[in-house]
Amino acid sequence: MALSFFALGMVMWLALGSDYGCTPVSAASEGVQASDLITYGSVIKLMHEKTKFRLHSHDVPYGSGSGQQSVTGFPDVDDSNSYWIVRPTLDSSAKQRETIKSGTPIRLQHMITRKWLHSHLHASPISGNLEKTANFTHFYALWLLLLFAFHLLRLEIEGSGKTWRQDQRVRLRHVDTGGYLHSHPKKYTRIAGGQQEVCGVGEKRPDNVWLAAEGVYLPVAESK
């Protein structure tokens, strides 16, 4: 389902409203840009390659482990809780609309709740792997300067190509725990009924490959 003009405006406002100055943006649209490159500030959905579920979060805490905001896989394409903003690290000189190379540490900020994708050594509820959560809103960023490594994900592009594009298979490895962003067909039955578990695992598997899917892809910044 296409975003309405109002919803598109809200997405852009949320994407541009934090972590950046007022860098002008020439154009953005729902879906694939001509270059299909993923840039900082883009608002995207990540699709799990094997199951086609989207990386998702909502203001519902886990009933065990850390008790923080849960992260799941969601079956429907048109849910706004599956949007994530691609951010550079706090110590990076990268600017909005710059491209992202394989091996680069990035952060993913949940668009609706403003929390950051995170990982723990707590056991995930279904499989007992590393728990995935969303935690700490943007307003806590100043005192998180010493803790920001907990949110870092290292981009690993599979196959040829060194710059992240929409059609590329990627893995995201949590820097602090070493766990790859992972999902599988096992589903929750109660609070998040029908949604599947997202967790972290310490080794490469076919089930920890993702692709950038729907989203608002900011065009590459023009060279000055």
From TrEMBL:
This is Stromal cell-derived factor 2-like protein. Keywords: Repeat, Signal. The keyword NAD does not apply. It comes from the Eukaryota. Residues 35-89, 97-148, 161-215 form the MIR domain. InterPro entries: MIR_dom_sf (IPR036300), MIR_motif (IPR016093). The keyword Nucleus does not apply. Gene3D superfamilies: 2.80.10.50. Residues 1-17 form the signal peptide. It holds the Pfam family MIR.
